[in-house]
Amino acid sequence: MTVAWLGLGANLGDARQTLKDAVVCLAQQHTITVLAKSSLYRTAPIDAGGDDYYNCVVKLDTTLPVRHLLALCHRVESHFGRERPFRNAPRTLDLDILLYGDHVIEEPDLIVPHPRLIERAFALVPLIELDPDLIIPQHGRADAFLTAVADQRIEKVKPLCQCLAGLAAAEADTARGAAPDVAAGDSNGKMKRGGCR
Ligand code: A4P
Ligand code: MG
Questions:
Q1: Which of 7, 8, 39, 196 is the most exposed place for a label (fewest CB within 10 A)?
Q2: Where is this region: Disordered (predicted)?
């Protein structure tokens, strides 16, 4: 088994939902165990045009050799409608292998650690959220590169599902002796509107 880290990005279609669905798709592979998923981030396009991106990172345990993992990434991208009209074109889904154990691979069609990882807040910030002490082979501590990307806009997206927020609000109300806020959720934390997605 190897611990691998994948970066997910999208800025075409329902990008937010695609990232969630892609994580489910990865988790359903019998060769992969998803160990952790970062928050979802909204990010400014870097070296690219189009709308803002949504990005996240997943940490996996996998029995797949790295080339099979790359092939799987390409299959999942295709499943979600990825097209490649030109370099850095807007995309429904991009899956990059950021790290694969402590392997260092430099081949024409596969470079690990991902060659632009240390230059990009949209990869570094979610990685460091999952592992604040992460070491990038050949580069050292991931957090050492944060200052250099501080000008890249990145913001954490609040989860669409407000159930837990509703529950927290109800518990706070109960603690204050106040009536629960029906807009946020009832006394059992159930949503009055919207719902899980
Ligand atoms: N490839 C080589 N190494 C890897 C690796 N570690 N993981 C090859 C995945 N693929 C790797 O990838 C092109 C080729 O890279 C593949 O055939 C594979 O064999 P691609 O997915 O077709 O194209 P790409 O992702 O556009 O290329 P690239 O060069 O990886 O682009 P980047 O650097 O990933 O940039 N801004 C924001 N805010 N958020 C983003 O997610 N993404 C990009 C793409 C630009 N700006 C962005 C974002
Ligand atoms: Mg890619």
A1: 196
A2: 178-197
